[in-house]
Amino acid sequence: MIAYDFFTTQKLEEALDYLDRLEKVKVLAGGTDLLVDMHKKSPRLPPISYLLDISNLEVLKFIRPADHYVEIGSLITHSKLIKEPLLNHNFPLLVEAARTIGSTQIRNRGTIGGNLVNASPAADLLPPLIALKAEVVLTSKKSERVLPLEEFLAGPYKTKIEANELLTKIKIPLLGDHYYTDFQKIGRRKAMSIARLSIALVVKIDEKSIFQDVRVVPGSATPYPQSLSKVEKAIEGKSINKIDLEEIGRIISEEMISITGVRWSTPYKKPTIAILLKRSLEKVIKESKTNA
Amino acid sequence: MHRINLTIKVNGKEVTLKVGPKERLIDTLREQLNLTGTKEGCSIGECGACTVILDGEAVCSCLILTGQIGGSEVLTIEGLEVAGKLDPLQKAFLDYQAIQCGFCTPGMLMSAKALLLKNPHPGREEIKTALEGNLCRCTGYEQIIEAIESVANK
Q1: 2Fe-2S ferredoxin-type domain spans which residues (chain B) (predicted)?
Q2: Which of A11, A54, A198, B20, CA to CA, is 20 to 30 A from B137?
């Protein structure tokens, strides 16, 4: 039996004040992970004295352009991400990933901030947001700090958020010209599926058809999503007309295994991650040729 | 543990409630308001039997604490029938025999209703997406989709 007291507020300052004053506070947003963990009495759940509902903080529900970024309030639901023209235009891979989350009911409640703070190894928004070099804004009563999302993650279901902090905003830098992106996900079925494996790809293909600034971030492949620098370097500098996709596939498989070791799922994931990356690369290569 | 006072609108009627810190929307509906049409299946948001419409959106009432939704508007299966007249979706479910044991039916209807409220003429794929979160273990989905299509094509 989990015993806790419940607070809800419509004011950000009040929420930050609760976090500052009270101990063992668990923040509740959309509830699509937390209420499941509570129902299942998940061992991942820390002891909770207070549940702080932030789902009514209207001030954290925005998507807006800002200088060289798009800023997303942490309480934006997956359904809102999918509908937003600004995101469809600039970051289609993020929208594609949001579309694959849970079901309509889950997407209507689950939030981008919750997906990041819960930090599941299979969190669908983590690979695209890491590949986009997103930053998270962590706000406490007295200060505010910005961390690259990749640094924010500290392990499976672990982040560097402090007990008195709230994730308030996600900042995604705009991609320049000649960038191409893709997101692929494999689940056990089409709807309500947890990613068995996914991949987010962001690349620049310059006027000479050379890969630049390659970012490859698989989901459900490593203990928590991270960019794979070896395969990124192997792709960088190659011409889209000469790249050996089989070799790139071998490199990403090896890099994944170098991180995870050989696990029960390796016989499946080793060839599959190679195929996912190949599909993504083929897709961006084709797109860049259509644009040329 | 303090109780939370709040007012919500359920099927068009304002109700003022005292709820516990762990009380989920489905608990409030079934146990405080005696609206037992909404069913509890998996309790973890996977089966959709508990689907209701919250401020226009289909949601799982097992994944919401009632304390979160003061001031909101909830539509349940009991709110579909107006003045003794079945909603066109309810009528279509009967006509197309889209019901066998009936346990998933309230959730199916609420997901379908949420879709039609936003988009009165959805295509087949849009209907399937709206039902992604609703499981049926007896009739199969075909009659359900056909029933919704028949209303969408009107």
Answers
A1: 4-80
A2: A198
Residue A195: is its pLDDT beyond 90?
no
Any idea which fold A5-53 has? 3.30.43
SS3 A184: strand
Looking at the domain covering A179-291, what would its CATH class be?
Answer: alpha beta
- Smallest Cβ distance to B63: which of A35, A51, A191? A35
What are the tens digits of pLDDT across the range A126-162?
A: 999 999 999 999 999 999 999 999 999 999 999 999 9
Taking the C-alpha atoms of residue A35 and residue B99, their distance in angstroms, rounded to an integer, is 30
Q: What is the pLDDT of residues B91-150, one digit of tens each?
A: 999 999 999 999 999 999 999 999 999 999 999 999 999 999 999 998 789 999 999 999
Which residues have CB under 8 Å from A129's CB, separation 6+?
A94, A116, A149, A170, A172
Asked if pLDDT for residue A287 goes beyond 70, the answer is yes
Please report the pLDDT score of residue A95 as a whole number: 97
Exposed / middle / buried, residue B38 (Cβ in 10 Å: 0-12, 13-18, 19+):
buried
* Interchain contact, A105 vs B65, CB within 8 Å: no
- Domains of chain B, each with CATH number or no CATH: 4-79 (3.10.20.30), 88-153 (1.10.150.120)
pLDDT in tens, B46-60: 999 999 999 999 999
pTM of this structure: 0.95
- Secondary structure of residue B60 in the 3-state scheme: strand
Angle formed at CA A181 by CA A84 and CA A32, multiple of 5 degrees = 50
Query: What residue has token string 């999302």?
Result: A149
Residue B20 C-alpha, separation from nearest chain A C-alpha, in angstroms: 8
Residues of B in contact with A105 (CB under 8 A): 45, 48, 51, 58-60, 63, 111, 133
Give the closest-approach CA distance of A94 to chain B in angstroms. 19
CA distance B84 to chain A (A): 28
